[in-house]
Amino acid sequence: MKQQKKSKFFTFIFxxxxxxxxxxxxxxxxxxxxxxxxxxxxxxxxxSLQALFCxxxxxxxxxxxxxxxxxxxxxxxxxxxxxxxxxxxxxxxxKGFKISSPTIRKWAAGFLIVIGAGLLWDNLSGIAYxxxxxxxxxxxxxxVNRIPEVVIAVLIxxxxxKLIAGKKEELHGDER
Length: 176
What we know:
two-stranded antiparallel sheet; 2 strands
């Protein structure tokens, strides 16, 4: 399918469904990949990982909406110069992900570690529930149940202190 600018009204209506407006304008790879990521985030939410996939779903929806609107607003020459590629092709390289910003790379790594640790904790506590007798589990459960929240709270506090310290160093560096 050849890419071409089409009705602004239908492009706007289709932009509410991630990937649909891209497909309507002829960018099938972009559209299908956006729809796939959005659908996978919905499936992830349905599989009880709501805390993880709800933000992903929201981000994909907003990305898809504004991506379609930005493509539709391009001039004819810039529009025709766009290539149709899967959305993850810009992030992939031969042996892994290519994220050029060290800050984004660090935050993404931290986010994935926290999510992975939370999922691991959830599964291990479920196993422990089956191994520990009920009378002991009733005593331990309130503590075990709160550990992930406490860890996340401590991480947020540490990040807050680092941000304050970084701002303080930045301010004192300017005065010297």
